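Fold this complex.
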Amino acid sequence: MEQIYDLLVLGGGPAGLAAGMYGARARMKTAIIEKGRPGGQAATTEDLENYPGFGRGTTGPGLTQAMADHASSFGAEFIKDTIVSLDLQSSPKKVVGRKGEYLGKALIYALGAEPRMLRVPGEGKLRGKGVSYCATCDADLFEELEVAVVGSGDAAIEEAEYLSKFADLVSIIVIHEEGKVDANQVSFERAQQNPKLKWVWNSIVKSVNGEELVESITLKNIQTGEESDYPVNGVFIFIGTVPLTEVLPEQVQVNPQGYIITDEKMATSVEGVFAAGDVRVKYLRQVVTAASDGAIAAVAAEKYVHETELWEKEVLKAQKPVFVAYYNPTDMNGTEKVGIVDRFVRANNERFSLVKVDATRNELVGRRYNFNLDKLPMLHVFVNGEVRQEVAEINEATLEAISKLL
Amino acid sequence: MIEVNKDNFDNEVLQASGVVMVDWWGPKCERCLELMPHVEELAGKYQGQIKFCSVDTSGNRRLAIGQKVLGLPAILFYKDGQKIDELSGQEIAPEDVEAKIKQYAK
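Structure:
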């Protein structure tokens, strides 16, 4: 029989690695599926100075490798494969890769995002010929040359600084008016002190030009409408990201930009499927928030797996009809009513069994049998895995009446 | 795999007869480091059918630009001193490299 993982983590960036570490440490049988080397986008950033506890001198590849080792040390397995499709309806859930199929009771989708393209003429053709989305990869090829950076967010400003260690001149093409950038103020102020950086305001890129290599870009001033040819040897594009959701089935809800919608426990619209990191709708996309998402998702996934297994065993696959009493432990009246059910089932223990559920804590029942938490206590009678009776008013007479029906 | 640099590129690649594959990489290029073991494996598998070389672009920057390599990783194929094909500018999967090798292997 194929082995079934408790937790399958899709993606080996900071979110996936943190999820794998938390999952494995909680003794779940955990695997992280990653097509390449672990690290994700963070591994393509050389200077990483805002991960708490790790200041200047920390590198993206260094930190993410440490995260991967940490996950391994608790027993998380690494599977090197490219994910082709997902079946979230089956139980357990199925991940189809190029090399094999993997089964998991819970899934954390952490495939991240990739750089957004400008979508202008010449960009695709000259990719790798001066057009780049990764300063760390290509910067040293541009020593003594002149490059442009497109964008003004944190990534654009920080990578421009990195590029200035190699290139003679780095022109930053900013769509906003002079003095306005999307990056944080600290990075911006430092960048303004850098003599190798040149700021080109109010401008967008209309095309990337060159035969075999990038020779220039065509800029348009959005205030005057004027277009000009701007000679550069390379153009680095940092204008945000797009989520990697090609293999995500339609039943998982996303926002209009394609990012996965989750609640604060990282749960998606599909039971047992969680999302973490850059791929989900969130305010701040950083290594530290990705790691945080991963931790939350793994803890929520563990609770899900535990609750599902217990429910399956004690309720859905029980031999006898099961009385499930939902209650709120802070409500004294409710716990007394549960006492009535308790005594009744004990008196008839050859016919029935009892499961008590703290409905304020159990997420599974709230999700599957959506009932009003204000109307606790409440009773469900399950026969062969299905709700046969629902009882809002619990008393001896009702219980007797039900037992005659079963 | 033969380590090639600016001094022996001419001799090992351009003057060589038959097909030569050159893997251009850099020590800070994560995707290059990821791809490298696969390329080495392929070099073993197709040994003798194609000549396999690699260039560390750090220290051989002008050579790279001269060969129109401005993005890493890049895998270029040469035949009798002429560039005949290349993989560059996108994510390069080991399968893509093998497909090209098969195409040019004798």
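Residues 287-316 of chain A form the longest helix (30 residues).
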